[in-house]
Amino acid sequence: MSVETQKQTLGFQTEVKQLLHLMIHSLYSNKEIFLRELISNASDAADKLRFEALAKPELLEGDADLRIRLSFDKDARTVTLDDNGIGMSREEVIAHLGTIAKSGTADFLKNLSGDQKKDSHLIGQFGVGFYSAFIVADQVEVFSRRAGAAASEGVHWSSKGEGEFEVETIEKAERGTRIVLHLKGGEEEFADGWRLRNIVKKYSDHIALPIQLPKEHHGEDQPAEVEWETVNRASALWTRPRTEIKDEEYQEFYKHVSHDFENPLAWSHNKVEGKLEYSSLLYVPGRAPFDLYHREAPKGLKLYVQRVFIMDQADEFLPLYLRFIKGVVDSNDLSLNVSREILQKDPVIDSMKSALTKRVLDMLDKLAKDKPDDYKAFWKQFGQVLKEGPAEDFANKEKIAGLLRFASTAGEGDEQSVALADYVARMKDGQDKLYYLTGESYAQIKNSPHLEVFRKKGIEVLLLTDRIDEWLMSYLTEFDGKQFVDVARGDLDLGKLDSEEDKKAQEEIAKAKEGLLERLKGALGEQVAEVRVSHRLTDSPAILAIGEQDLGLQMRQILEASGQKVPESKPIFEINPQHPLIEKLDGEPDEDRFADLSHILFDQAALAAGDSLKDPAAYVQRLNKLLVELSA
After folding, report:
1. Could you tell me the CATH number of the domain that includes residue 619?
2. Under DSSP, is residue 283 helix (H, G, I), strand (E, B) or coil?
3. Which of 42, 192, 301, 584 sits at 20 to 30 Å (Cα–Cα) from 133?
4. Is 506 helix (H, G, I), strand (E, B) or coil?
5. Degrees, nearest 5: CA angle 170-175-177
6. pLDDT digits (tens, 9 = 90+) for 186-231
């Protein structure tokens, strides 16, 4: 007997052991979902067979009527789920049921908190539905044979859900997979036809495959041969008219396509007829998947062509910044032998992508208007990904900008709740620019000296603290015809918000302080690009501004963290000539002391901007020297 055919006992991958433990302990409050997950997997197996049979009809083995059958044995305390889908080979059984070959497994396990409710959602989206069988069973057996393989190449897998599983080669006449659950004590309720029918109707009515149970003959003798009856609607949900579909059905279908355990925040179901013909059913999830920021992680919509499943994650139909959207697209305009290569070159796809992108953005806009609390929840989960949009999707830049949310000096705390349209509506008379400030954190920038003149004049400033924000603003240059202005960059010009008297006074002060500016430039030397009088300050003595074309602190940190070379740039040192410290500095006759004080002011301005000091020890020495002089 070869190793291939004999019985082997193998250990589960460590991650599987952890997941099994979590499955059993986190999901017991909603046990019946095990059936939804197993039916969902069986439906996928049928889809895959249908697709492979397009090229190899012999895989159907003369039986093209795909279905799922559920049966039970009260006395033996078993529930059996049998499908005639694609089936699995011995290698596939070991790979699929013994390991999780999914990128980000370690990240996923790190995210588990021990909070049962939260963890159950994560487990669902990780797509490990098969293991949910162990919520109700203390032993699970799987009998499978891959379509096209010989009857002698069947495989039997068995495990008690602890540390290991057994696998052996068996005879199996029919292709597909049969799963037998040996129910735990106390779980006998599931070995019941009425209970199983109810669960199927509740969770799996939308499955486009007949789900059959043995027909019950009440008060009559059971016929010798089992009569099977279909208990679900068995038609593809997206092909039915919207008026016939209940919200609960849409929600359950979402859970089927996404493996999420939570309801979606919104959905959009559409049938397009005319030059192009296709149906789409798109969902906005309520929770971000753990691998949202792994840009290479699989993503995309389930693609069907004329109701035949083609691929699971077709990412050609939506841009990358909408990678969190789940759903189905079913086209009449693509050929059944479509492949990823063909998808990338087909002009039909470009038209569909453009239309589906607009549909998603409209759905988000509607969510923001009709259900602001739900949109707030959406923004918290997916806001940073949506911020990738303006750089990626020029055609919809204005639409995406309308969906963005920011913290601001007019908002409450660090909550990102201000829409650009609201900001524009609150603009001061004479204001024609949208002002913003970027920084590492809300705590760091809410009291920034850059905001002083804006507070004094009552002008709202957007406070941008996500790592992506400075990069975003390099693409998002205007909104509603008004330009964005970084209040820490260049020479601040408040336009009509400054009176002619203000401007004249600023010019006179700058002229009067030319001597001081020259002395400061001499003292600070190569550390600064320029020294000038500030129009930004009312309370602070000095500030660092960024050159118009220079990188800001956020971008510099991102580039440095990724190991890229950061271009050299020097800040502009601005002083507030009316501040007592600057007046004192102006009257300082000792050039050495003047240089020390200048460097202290420069370093303090760098700290206030959230930057780190080039030479902290020199700063401390100068400060200590000054303190000794003051206390003498």
Report:
1. 1.20.120.790
2. strand
3. 301
4. helix
5. 75
6. 999 999 999 999 999 888 888 889 999 998 876 666 676 889 999 9
